[in-house]
Amino acid sequence: MDLTQIDIEEKNKRAKKMMLWFGIVSLIMGFAGWTSAYIVSSKREDWISDLELPQAFFVSTAIIVLSSLTYFMAKLAVKKDNQKQGSIFLLVTLVLGISFIILQFKGFSQMLDNGYYFTGPTSSIKMSYVFLIAAVHIVHVVAGLISLLVVLVQQLRRKYMPGNTLGLELGATFWHFLDFLWVYLILFMYFVK
After folding, report:
1. What is the dihedral of CA 6, 9, 13, 18, to 10 degrees?
2. Kind and range of the H or E run holding 78
3. What are 175-180's contacts with CB under 8 Å, separation 24+?
4. Model confidence, pTM
5. Which of 74, 96, 140, 157 is the most buried (most CB within 10 A)?
6. pLDDT per position in the chain (193 positions), as tens?
7. What counts of helices (H) and strands (E) characterise the chain?
């Protein structure tokens, strides 16, 4: 295919999708570094191997998986020109995303109540990693929520319609990535003792 023959709008779409994927790959590299450091550090003598992750982390996992489903349903609704249903699903996704963050902080509170701290004399390297990995993921979920708010506002302004859903697709791709990333992280922290 001769790329010079593609119209400007198509080139713009490809560029935006490529930039998103570059960002996602860089995030994968960052989290791969932290999880690799976690594995290397697990060989230390002061590593806590019997730590149980807070229950709130598991509930938040179910919430973020559900939010991916509602984002997917929103995209389907808009592609079928059901604007009202698309808006409702986006709003539900927003509520679920906020609920995820609230539950993550509840998980932090549960860890603190159990005597596990991020830093200080009563902390451990493992807890520092758990706090760090979860907190950095929360920061990215906040970015995903900002993206979702932009998509929701654009949807309410009727900017998306069948054949014109680029912003919705980009937002959904990032959101699904955050979902898969958290599922990977929770499984990683659960199984890598």
Report:
1. 50
2. helix 55-79
3. 175/67, 175/68, 175/71, 175/93, 175/97, 175/144, 175/147, 175/148, 176/68, 176/71, 176/72, 177/24, 177/27, 178/64, 178/137, 178/140, 178/141, 178/144, 179/64, 179/65, 179/67, 179/68
4. 0.90
5. 74
6. 555 566 888 888 889 999 999 999 999 999 999 999 999 998 888 888 788 899 999 999 999 999 999 999 999 999 999 999 999 999 999 999 999 999 999 999 998 888 888 787 777 888 889 999 999 999 999 999 999 999 999 999 999 999 899 999 999 999 999 999 999 999 999 998 8
7. 5, 0
Q: Record the tokens describing residue 30, joined without a space.
A: 């960052």
